[in-house]
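Worked example (supplementary).
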Amino acid sequence: MGLLESRNLTKEFGGLTAVDRVTFDLRQGEILGLIGPNGAGKTTIFNMITGIYAPTDGEVFFREQRIAHPELTWGQRLTSPTWWMSWIPAPAVQKRWNEFRKLRPHEITERGIARTFQTIRLFDNLTVLENAMSGPHHRTTAGVAGAVFRPPSQQQEEHYIVEEARENLAFMGLEEYKDELAKNLPYGHQRRLEIARALATDPTLTILDEPAAGLNEQESIELMALIEDIRDSGITVLLIEHDMKVVMGICERIIVLDYGKKIAEGTPAEIQSNPRVIEAYLGEEEGEEV
Amino acid sequence: MQFLQQMINGVTIGAFYVLVALGYTMVYGVLKLINFAHGDLFMWGAYIGLTTLTGLLGLVAQGSAWFAIPAIIVVMLVVALVGVLVERIAYRPLREAGRLAPVISALGVAFILQSLARNIYGASYKTYPKEVALGGGFTFGGARVSLMQVIVLLVSFLLMAVLYLFVQRTRIGTAMRAVSLNHDVSRLMGIDVDRIIAIVFLIGPGLGGVAGMIVALYYGSFDFTVGWVFGLKAFIAAILGGIGNIPGAMLGGMLLGIVETLGAGYLSPQWKDVIAYLILILILIFRPTGLLGERVAEKV
Amino acid sequence: MRNLLSRFRSTNPLYWQGALLVLAILAPLPLGDYYRSVLWRTGLYAMLGLSLNIIVGYAGLFQLGHAAFYGVGAYTAGMLNIYFNIPLLLTLPLSVVVAALLGYLLTRPILHLRGDYLCIVTIAFGEVVRLVLVNNIFGITGGANGLSGIDRPVLFGLTLREPIYHYYIVVIFLIVTIFATQRLQESRLGRAWKYVREDEVAAEAMGIDTTRVKLLAFVLGSGWAGLAGALYAGKITVISPDQAKFMESVILFCIVVLGGTGSIPGAFVGTLGMVTLPELSRPLKAWRDGWLGLAMVTMMIARPEGLWPSRHFRREIRSEQEAPDPSLAVTGRSG
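After joint prediction of all chains, the assembly is encoded as:
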């Protein structure tokens, strides 16, 4: 099984089927691109993987553990012993409960999947450094007592958090802006901060949602190099993107969606010459190349 | 029979709640603001009604229940005017100020109104002059219906019907519905949003003020705290029906009046306020958009 | 002026903190009992303001029912003292625990609500608590008139009757409160609150358990308010449901928001304006509601971030005004 596997993933919103039985897998260490016309369901798939919605049908596996599955009905809850016993703090019981219920987004992040947002969602009024410091949060434990009494363990943790944050900022080339407010950064740097922040959570898989949106030529080229650096550092990348230069340039494999269905899968070369893909983007009338 | 009597009383109280709830819901509809001051506008309606009636009785030797009619008109006009002033001074500057500031300002206005009432009229209970009170009634299926109740109900339903037609059938009404959906688009369509909002603040508080006088007439006496409790209940009714939704306010008001009266009659009068609050809490937890409201979700 | 301010900022904070402390200790000495009580009341409300500051200022959650926990703390202390003869100082930890527990139970089901709706629910909860106390549930809460005859606290054999002793007790707790809230603000937890306040969805995506973080704010704030309630019981020896009424919650909310959201000096400024000033001025007392109301309206129009807000909050409010958030009340960013 691949690092991430989606099986028959489906999402319906009322009468609209946004994602229709999409099956794909993601292999460790690759850069996989997910493309398709607007409204094809790409972000919805992301949202299901990262726990924002539950699928209507289908499942997602990460590292062979199920992380997404349809929402339980009350009938299912009431008739399952796992639900009744979920309050027992025993590890074995809790393990089964975690597989049974819907995972919350922060739990998905804890398991090693990080994401960025299509519209930038930085902590605007905080500094660049503070933004990045949110990454190591889930890997540290200081609580109320730690905050008030500041024992050596807490101080070490704070040191660690700052170090990790700075490292990730440096990786994305943002170290010099660390005390600048996030909202004051130029757009291109804000995009980078989104990514730096996601990387600071120490993920195994990073999902980038249109990271090149709004970037100019030069910035896109820099972004491509950065994404490859991310992959080279051992992190697998799943990329949604509209900018074809970026997608064809760095993705090893590409999956194409249209109206919620997977219509093609393959290498950039294969995708570019696939007639169904061309049709989906351009319609039957035009005969131009992608 | 007990049940029928409770129902009749419940419907009467329900009608009062509806009149006040309409004010809340209309203001929320166009401004997305919970006008905490509304209950106190209702309270001022009661006081102004009292002053007007006392004044009228002072002029004419022989009092009569018919004096209530000019008094109601005066109340409606005065409270409506106060409503518009409040909007202009305390809410308009905060249109673009986020969610926190208008709420605090509204609470502030509520306190100012309360303080004014307490200091001008005094803290003791006031009673409406007996000359204006209406006695008499009839029995119906074992329950007693007073003439007062009949008139009050008629007036209330008349006002509700007029408002409903106004919002659904007139241009201004349509403009109000447009503004409640989106200010910017309404402006693009040529609607003078400020004027529409001012009109809403004429109608909403106007109705609330009238309700205040009617309630005071019905119960006979009141004090400056009546606005707070009544206002909160009416507000619960508006939320119950779906805030921003006019038919919702009507449904919510009636439901709340009936449930509350039945609860007080069959369970215990002390706890009737708690029942109302619990309804509110449950609605907000499980169905915040109310019975007739629509569900909306955030796009991530 | 600017020079003075920057020189002030660069001197060691311990100097002026020490000066304030000395001032606090010496202040009641030349004053009569009435004014000593006013000082006590100021300190107590400052404590309450700081406790609400955690919820409203740090975590950015609307809480308009905070006085309920103040009342619950007072009642816990009072009832334990009256019915079980537990000395007042020993009831303090229990008051904290009961108030904190109630805070947890009441807020757990409503954490998903945003903005206006959260505001209304907290008002409703506050009123329900007050009504439960008024209705004399199980016959133990004394009804609308409350309970009286609570013992004075006894410390090392000395029965603390005079206002000045209560004032010093409050000062001690106030120092602890300031220290603890300052530390919380600059900690991992404090940052988590900032993240949640800025953008809850993004915070959740970064691995922060937003539910837990919000609950912590409520539990801490509520528990601390309970402590203040117990201190109140020890001085006034009479407790009533009026402590939990909505007006009290609004005063506390205003202390935080008008004084300066999210900042510790702000809580003091707020207390001076909302509590101390009306106490000292007779005409202001009669028009207290009106004064409060006027302060609220004018502050929101002129200076919505409060008189002495934390740096962070001033930035936030100013940026919200430049680019208002059109999200609906049902979902969207809180606060």
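Two points are worth noting when inspecting this output. The first strand of chain C starts at residue 147 and ends at 148. The CA atoms of residues 101 and 151 of chain C lie 25 Å apart.
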